[in-house]
Specification:
The complex is a heterodimer of chains A (579) and B (86). Chain A is α/β, with parallel strands linked by helices and 579 residues long. In chain A, 42% of the residues lie in helices and 23% in strands. With 86 residues, chain B is an alpha+beta fold. Chain B has a two-stranded parallel ribbon. In chain B, strands 3-4 form a two-stranded antiparallel ribbon. The radius of gyration of chain B is 13 Å and the shape is globular. The mean pLDDT of chain B is 78. Classes of the chains: A alpha/beta (579), B alpha+beta (86).
Chain lengths: 579, 86
């Protein structure tokens, strides 16, 4: 008998090691208690139980026992060899498989129960020191029992046995609701009621796409995430989708800038994209989204950074060829392995499955830069409800890896979304949002690029014309006229008009210069002749002065001279000189 | 005969088997009772899951019957089939 004390401690949990599941339940399955795992055939119950035991043995050195009621243990092990679990390293005394299948030639007579089996198992538990145990497909045994009462009794027996030994037990049962009889249903309900934790796996086909979901129905003594969580079965087994935003605070935020591949765009962005940021490029078909993605990838490769380019539209060779026509050479980088172009057109499955593929490929390649072109395809596969979660987790993944993520998204000109937000709502989550559109002016379509937002950057708010030529991608200079940015032919016209104006102006200047020079020359000549006249006048004046001077002198000295010449005495001179 | 301790089913099985054998094979039978609680390793090795289980080891082929043997008909049918095939 167990004595019960008031539970002041939080129920301890046994970690399952299943990606995402431990997050949902806040730690794993209830320790020392029983969990029921139900689901249709092929929903992954056996795999879940197996992973649970593996993890216990490998990470916690907790030996486990797998009681197989339906499938032969050797086959189970063989099937699971395909997963990446390093099963060979597992010691024999860590994991024990009990073949509990009822042979078909067994005859029934009278009542029976499972106490024998439990006794045998108890011995094994003691021998191994096992802590975890899985009963796989217990519904098979229950189906053999004659009536509901017996079934309930045996379920109870099993439950009590597990509790008495303090084992963390996982019971799996098929819950094929359409084909189950009412009796089997009853037994299942009883089990659901008895256990401390109940998990449901289902495998649906929605809109032609298969989706697997996991839901924790109940968990006594603990909080848990009640929503359905999508999962896929990947290389490492179960992969339950969880946006692990909690762990994001561990990632470093960088101030480093990476080039977008277009120099002038980098300038508009204040240096480029931030490393580790998520960038969204939206636009109607044909607006050069793939081209910009290619430019980004090329710039990343030039820096020597491994990059993965996921394309949902074209395959690798097409992309390389198309981008070569605009001067972006991706071929050499693919050859040397720096760039991995994955054509996701051939990927089938739900948006969840594709996300797992993206994560796996990116991790394998060690990518520092990631391009998804276009990410809006994820919304088309499956339904829109899951697509948003997928987009969220994609951004989450790239941030936790520290990779710079660039997504392109189709915005239908007619759909009315326009600049109000992309279907996946990535526009709200992305750090930088660049929009490409067509500007129809003067009978032409020209591509315009504008930065709608870029967190943490003082970015330019101008609409620039994007020019693609065989020399590369660039942005044109800005010519405005009457408040409108001119593009295309009108820009060219404006450019040439300006050029012409400049030429005319310079010619005019030259002409004026020449004219002025001529006038200057004329004036100079005149000045010279005036000067000569002036000189002449001066000389005349001097002559006159001198002449006057000498005349006066002569006049003054004349009487004296005359008297001298005459030889008369002074008095006579004085008398003759009244003046 | 593999039994689980002294439970009702197990006691019934042993009793039923004894009376059946006395009736049909008087003097020509041998019953070995294995209590899985006392000898669980043996139970594990012999792959005994449900109890009580009767395993007839001789003559061959090996026959397995699970249950308390409260209904002797299935047993009889089994032996009849055997007799016929001989």
């Amino acid at each position: 008998m167990r004595s019960f004390t008031t539970n002041t401690v939080v129920l301890s949990k046994a970690s399952t090691g299943i990606e995402g599941f431990d997050d949902i339940t806040g730690g794993g399955l209830p320790d020392g208690r029983t969990t029921l795992l139900e689901g249709d055939a092929g929903s992954g119950k056996t795999l879940f139980g197996f992973q649970f035991l593996m993890h216990g043995a490998q990470s916690f050195e907790e030996p486990g026992i797998f009681v197989a009621f339906e499938e032969e243990p050797d086959r189970i092990v063989a099937n699971f060899k395909a997963f990446d679990w390093k099963m060979a390293e597992l010691q024999e005394n860590q994991l024990f498989f009990m073949d509990a299948r009822i042979s078909t030639d067994m005859v029934q007579s009278g009542e029976f129960d499972i106490s024998g089996m439990l006794a045998a198992l108890e011995a094994k538990v003691g021998e191994m020191g096992a802590k975890r145990i899985v009963f796989d497909a217990v519904d098979v045994i229950l189906a053999l029992l004659p009536d509901g009462t017996t079934r309930k009794r045996e379920v109870y027996r099993l439950h009590e046995w597990l509790l008495s030994l303090g084992l963390t037990g996982l019971i799996t049962a098929k819950s094929d609701n359409e084909r189950m009889g009412s009796e089997a249903h009853e037994a299942l309900s009883f089990m659901q009621f008895m256990v401390d934790c109940s998990v449901v796996l289902n495998h649906r086909v929605a809109l032609g796409v298969s989706q697997r979901n996991l839901r924790v129905r109940k968990f006594r003594g603990s909080g848990f995430d009640e929503n359905e969580a999508p999962f896929v079965i990947g290389k490492r087994g179960f992969d339950v989708a969880r946006a692990r935003t909690v762990s994001r605070h561990e990632t470093n935020v960088s101030n480093e800038r990476v080039s977008s591949g277009v120099t002038r765009l980098d300038t508009m962005l204040g240096g480029g994209y931030y490393r580790g940021a998520s960038i969204l490029i939206t636009g109607s078909p044909g607006t050069a989204k793939t081209t910009l993605s290619g430019a980004f990838a090329e710039a990343a490769c030039r820096r020597g950074e491994p990059t993965t380019f996921f394309s949902f539209d074209s395959d690798a060779n097409e992309i390389i060829r198309n981008l070569t026509s605009v001067g972006i050479e991706l071929g050499p980088y693919v050859k040397c392995g720096l760039l991995s172009i994955v054509s996701a057109r051939t990927m089938s499955g739900s948006a969840e499955t594709i996300l797992v593929h993206i994560k796996t490929r990116a991790k394998e390649h060690g990518s520092r830069c990631l391009v998804i072109d276009p990410v809006s395809t994820l919304a088309k596969i499956g339904n829109e409800l899951t697509a948003h979660g997928v987009a969220e987790r994609l951004i989450d993944f790239s941030k936790s890896e520290g990779s710079t993520l660039l997504c392109t998204s189709l915005l239908d000109e007619l759909s009315g979304h326009a600049e109000g937000g992309s279907p996946l709502q990535i526009s709200t989550m992305a750090d930088t949002w660049i929009h490409l559109n067509y500007l129809v002016q003067a009978g032409e379509r020209n591509r315009g690029l504008s930065i709608i937002k870029s967190r943490g950057t003082a970015h330019s708010n101008q609409v620039r014309e994007l020019i693609l030529s065989d020399e590369g991608v660039t942005l044109a200079d800005i010519y405005t006229a009457g408040g409108e940015v001119l593009m295309g032919t009108m820009r060219w016209e404006k450019e040439s008009a300006e050029r012409l104006k400049n030429e005319v102006a310079s010619v005019e200047e030259r002409l004026k210069l020449v004219t002025l020079e001529a006038e200057e020359a004329v004036l100079e000549v005149r000045a010279k002749s005036l000067q000569t006249e002036l000189l002449a006048k001066k000389v005349e004046k001097e002559l006159l002065t001198r002449t006057t001077g000498s005349r006066e002198g002569e006049l003054a000295s004349m009487p004296g001279r005359m008297s001298e010449l005459r030889g008369s005495d002074d008095s006579a001179a004085k008398e003759c000189d009244p003046s | 005969m593999y039994v689980a301790g002294e439970t009702q089913n197990s006691c019934k099985a042993i009793a039923n088997l004894k009376s059946f054998c006395l009736l049909n094979f008087a003097g020509r039978f041998e019953i070995e009772v294995v209590d899985v609680f006392k000898d669980p390793i043996r139970a594990l090795e012999d792959k005994i899951l449900l109890t009580p289980t009767l395993v007839r080891v001789a003559p061959l082929p090996v026959l397995k019957v699970i249950g308390s043997l409260s209904d002797s008909e299935p047993l009889l049918n089994l032996l009849d089939q055997e007799a016929l095939s001989v």
